Each structure stands twice: as C-alpha cells, then as structure tokens.
Task: inverse folding
C-alpha cells in the first residue's frame, strides 16, 4: 500500500500535498516551420505546437501521472538500493497527430496526417 | 548546430522514422520543383482547411476518409488530330509507388467540364483509356460516378478507383492514361482549335487517397487473438495492468 511506503520515504513531496511548479508537467511550445527550415516544402500549417515535458519526477508517483508500475519500482531502487540507478524521466504520455500540406520533390502536392506530432500529456517512466 | 542546413541536422538521426521519411520525401532547397499553382493548389488548400483546423489538428468531423491524399499532375498532354465534333487531349499520370505501409483507397480525376478556348465554348468529359484486345481502340467504358467539384462550379470529380486499382497492382512503370474529350456545345465541328495554348493543369488533375495500414497492422499483431474487437482508441490502456 503506497501509504505505508510514503510514510517511510522522506522527501519534499510529503510536506506539500499539491503539485510543485517544478514537477513533471506539459509545457506549451510553438515553432514555425520556417524556424525548422522546412518552410520550403511545407505549405500548411505555418505554425506548429509540439509542446514538451519537463520537471522532476516526485518520489511518490501519483495516479494522475499515469506512470507504469515499473516507474514506481525504479524510484524505490534509486532511493533504497542504488542511487546510480536514475529516477524515472518526465516524458510525453499521450500524443495527437498533425495534418500537413506539403510539396513533394516531384512537384506533387500531398496532404498527410503524421501521428504523434504533438505532446498532449506527460508521465514519469 | 544553429545555422546548419536542416537536412544536415536530420542526417544525424536517420534512425527516427519521421526524420528518415522527411529525408527521403523532402525536396532539398535547391531541388525544389516550382509549386503547383492555380486550381490544383487551391483545391488542396481547400481540402486541407476542410480536414484540419488552423493549428493543423485533423478535424474530428473530417470526411476525407484517408490519412494521405496526393495530387498528381499529368506528365504530358498530347492533342490528337481532330475527328468529327470531338477534340481529344491525352493525359498521362505517373502512378509512383508509395511507402509499403500505405494502401490506395480511392482515386478521383478532377477535370474542367466547361472550357473556354479562344471564342469556343466547349463541354468536356474524361474517359479512362482501356486496352481492349491487340489493337487498342477508342474506349467507351463509362459507368464512373461523377459529381460537381467541391471547389469550382465548372469542374467535375469522377471516381475512377476501380480502374486505377487494376493498374496499381501491376509491376514496373505504371501510367494512368485518360482522354480529355471536348465538344463544342453546339455540336458543330471544331476548326482551328488551339489546344496547345492550354496547360494540362488547366484541364485535369488526379487525386489518390491512401490509408496508413502500418498502425492497424501493428495493433493487430500486439493483441492476442479475439481481443481486437474490444480495442478502442486507448489501446495502451488495454495492455497496462491496473494498479
């Protein structure tokens, strides 16, 4: 039961019940295809919002973070067994696709849906 | 690596699928062919706006029915000698192979059914070229469903999926040949008609609709038999143990 574990594991999280600002979370981020150097073959859209995940993974992985069991175990290993084993990382959990209108090398115009292009949520794993 | 050309940047990580695809598909700046302007580009922009929102997110209610649509330009337009009231332009469309993971689900030829050439007002339609027997003669296949184009009143969209699919599975170089046939509306002979002033892009272009079979194949592989029908969008939920 996580209650028994948390009472035994010291950490900043125990002091605050809510999420701290530096904890793993989704950060909005927008670029233009011009910045990526792709504007000479991408017609639309002009702007692209990939977002990104950043933050530390709390010692106790709340249910909302959708972390797999392995992440909990890796945390405990880092804390109780071997600190050279890294804590779980804050990475995207869910993605959504993006539609792109582009010009191919032979001049054809292509509408294409690319999967996993926008991070929609984050997890620790 | 600011300032380096983006292609060089991408070369560092060829193993990532998207980047590899971009390396193969994206034209380099110097190689870029002039963009297809005019009706084809406007048609694709309209199709894009109907299928994706301003941020590029695919619309939930999109009716496109495919994850990839390619607009193909005709290779050449050859005006055939006059024969009776008809004037015929031969249009050849290259059917280039795709990445393996895409399957052709629809093919539509979009053409101008009303044409003004010089002082002539013409009505036109398209006939796929079908080889019948050792001597190929003028096709009269018909039976293709047509509808007014979503973009221009003077244009028509004709569904030629079955015809193209027969060609699609052939080996070697595949070219779809269409006849673009015009008749002066009053039915009299057309004299001195100057086709050559008309670019084939002004008369017809081909749309090929593909679906990405890769994802569905992967999902089918991962799931034990009999579970597929329970599969919903959140497939990873099905595979994870609840805590």
Result:
């Amino acid at each position: 039961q996580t209650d028994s574990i948390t009472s035994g594991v010291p950490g900043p999280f125990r002091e605050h019940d809510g999420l701290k600002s530096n904890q793993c979370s989704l950060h909005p981020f927008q670029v233009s295809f011009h910045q990526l150097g792709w504007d000479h073959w991408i017609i639309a859209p002009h702007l692209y919002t990939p977002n990104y995940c950043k933050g530390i993974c709390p010692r106790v992985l709340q249910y909302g973070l959708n972390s797999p069991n392995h992440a909990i175990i890796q945390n405990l290993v880092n804390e109780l067994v071997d600190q050279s084993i890294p804590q779980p990382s804050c990475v995207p959990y869910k993605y959504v696709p993006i539609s792109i209108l582009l010009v191919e090398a032979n001049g054809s115009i292509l509408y294409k849906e690319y999967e996993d292009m926008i991070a929609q949520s984050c997890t620790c794993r | 690596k600011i300032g380096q050309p983006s292609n060089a940047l991408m070369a560092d990580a060829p193993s990532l699928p998207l980047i590899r695809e971009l390396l193969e598909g994206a034209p380099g700046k110097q190689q870029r062919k002039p963009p297809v302007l005019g009706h084809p580009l406007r048609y694709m922009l309209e199709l894009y706006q109907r299928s994706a929102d301003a941020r590029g997110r695919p619309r939930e209610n999109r009716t496109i029915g495919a994850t990839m649509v390619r607009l193909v330009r005709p290779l050449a337009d050859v005006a055939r000698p006059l024969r009776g009231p008809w004037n015929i332009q031969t249009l050849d469309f290259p059917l280039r192979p795709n990445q393996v993971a895409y399957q052709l689900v629809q093919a539509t030829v979009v053409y101008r059914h009303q044409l003004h050439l010089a002082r002539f007002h013409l009505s036109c339609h398209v006939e796929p070229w079908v080889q019948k027997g050792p001597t190929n003669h003028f096709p009269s296949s018909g039976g293709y469903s047509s509808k007014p184009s979503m973009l221009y009143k003077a244009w028509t969209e004709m569904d030629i999926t079955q015809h193209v699919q027969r060609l699609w599975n052939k080996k070697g170089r595949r070219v779809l040949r269409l006849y673009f046939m015009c008749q002066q509306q009053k039915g009299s002979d057309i004299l001195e008609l100057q086709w050559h002033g008309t670019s084939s892009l002004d008369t017809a272009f081909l749309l090929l609709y593909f679906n990405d079979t890769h994802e569905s194949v992967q999902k089918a592989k991962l799931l034990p038999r009999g579970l597929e029908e329970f599969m919903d969008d959140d497939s990873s939920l099905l595979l994870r143990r609840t805590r």
About this structure: Residues 1 and 7 of chain A are 11 Å apart (CA to CA). The longest helix of chain A spans residues 69-81. The helical segments of chain A are 2-8, 12-15, 69-81.
